[in-house]
Automatic annotation (TrEMBL):
It comes from Bacillus salitolerans. It comes from the Bacteria. It holds the Pfam family Acetyltransf_1. Residues 2-168 form the N-acetyltransferase domain. InterPro entries: Acyl_CoA_acyltransferase, GNAT_dom. This is GNAT family N-acetyltransferase. Gene3D superfamilies: 3.40.630.30.
Length: 168
């Protein structure tokens, strides 16, 4: 039986290992970023753990604040009225991954729903690769709305989209 648990310090290496597997990445940069993000205001995250104790999925995010790097990138994409509407009381949905062997079973939906349940913010924001159509379809099915079709948080050859959601 699978179990959804809050992310704890002792799980971080397993979460990072899953990230590296899903995104075909090597190294420790994600682990370091996750450890840093755990100290951000409003951090919350969940994992789905198999009967064997393996992390087969995770999601996490935190309060989006002006002093944060990614918040700064996002804020450049909003006019002042939209900034007030979407980014002033906002939960930033940062990461989601499910092991390839466990996809198409509703786990991503469960992780997103659990993550956003009770975060206490007015809105939520996420970015995903522009060509990640399965993720975009999932988010749209959960009532996320496309805010911007083309957003470059880094490499100009890898466009992202910005999606937003009202939470209350």
């Amino acid at each position: 039986m699978l179990e959804i648990l809050k992310i704890k310090e002792e799980m971080l290496e397993k979460v990072a290992s899953l990230y590296n597997k899903v995104w075909s990445v090597r190294g420790t940069s994600f682990l370091e970023r996750l450890q840093k993000h755990m100290n951000y205001e409003g951090f919350t995250g969940f994992v789905i753990v198999s009967e064997d104790g393996d992390v087969i999925g995770y999601s996490y995010g935190y309060t989006s604040l002006p002093e944060q790097y990614y918040h700064g990138l996002l804020s450049n994409e909003f006019n002042s009225e939209d900034y007030q509407k979407w980014l002033t009381d906002c939960f930033e949905f940062v990461e989601l991954a499910v092991h390839p062997g466990y996809r198409k079973q509703g786990h991503a939906n469960q992780l997103i729903t659990k993550l956003l349940d009770g975060v206490g913010h007015k809105t939520a924001i996420l970015t995903t690769q522009q060509n990640n159509f399965s993720a975009r379809k999932l988010y749209e099915s959960l009532h996320w709305v496309l805010y911007k079709e083309t957003f470059y948080p880094g490499d100009k050859s890898n466009p992202f989209v910005i999606m937003v959601k009202k939470l209350r």
